[in-house]
Amino acid sequence: MSEGTLPLRGADGGEQSPPPAYVVAETDVRDWIALLKPRVMSLVVFTGAVGLLVAPGHLNPVLAFTAILCIGVAAGACGAINMWYDRDIDAVMRRTRDRPVPAGRIEPNAALSYGVTLAAGSVIVMYLALNLAAAFVLALSIAFYVFVYTMWLKRRTPQNIVIGGAAGAFPAVVGWAAVTGSVDLVPLLLFAIVFFWTPPHFWSLALFANDDYRRAGVPMLPVIAGAKETRRQIVIYTLLLLPLSLAPWYIGFSGPLYGMVTLLLDGGFLFCVWRVLRDRQDANGVSLTDDAPARAAFRYSILYLFVLFAALAVDRLVG
Question: Are 74 and 198 in contact (CB under 8 A)?
Answer without folding.
Answer: no
